[in-house]
């Protein structure tokens, strides 16, 4: 995972572009243990492992990181923001837009 992140960053840097990372979204485990579309099990514990690794990678390279995982989990009715347990619905996308745009705007203002 981190090797792939390094390759992505190296490619972006060669182009002279800036990069930022966004966490993976949390899942509604009531609908992802198992998933409705197959014998797959997605847990927030597993998502958190990837997000923690991405956050550590970002910190080590001084790359901005937006943690939507924690923001979404903090919502009282988080499952109502999800379409199928793993992907946001319209409400979820609107919430993400409202949280992500200030993050992006801040980066562009630098």
Summarize the structure.
This protein is mainly α and 110 residues long.
Description:
The protein has 110 residues and is mainly α. Helix content is 55%, strand content 4%. The chain has five helices and two strands; from the N terminus they run αβααβαα. It has a two-stranded parallel ribbon with strand order 1-2. The longest helix has 20 residues, at 90-109. The two termini are 29 Å apart. The model has no long low-confidence stretch (mean pLDDT 93).
* Series of secondary-structure elements, N-terminal to C-terminal: HEHHEHH
The Rg value, from CA coordinates, equals: 15 Å
Q: What number is the mean pLDDT?
A: 93
Spatial sequence of strands, sheet with the most strands: 1-2
Strand content: under 5%
The shape is: globular
Q: Class by helix and strand content?
A: mainly alpha
List unreliable stretches of 5+ residues.
none
Q: How does the major sheet shape up? A: 2 strands, parallel
| Helix proportion | 40-55%
Main attributes?
5 helices, mainly alpha, 110 residues, two-stranded parallel sheet, 2 strands, single chain, 55% helix
Could you outline the blueprint of secondary structure elements for this entry?
Elements: H1 2-14, E1 21-22, H2 29-32, H3 44-60, E2 65-66, H4 68-73, H5 90-109
Parallel strand pairs: 1-2
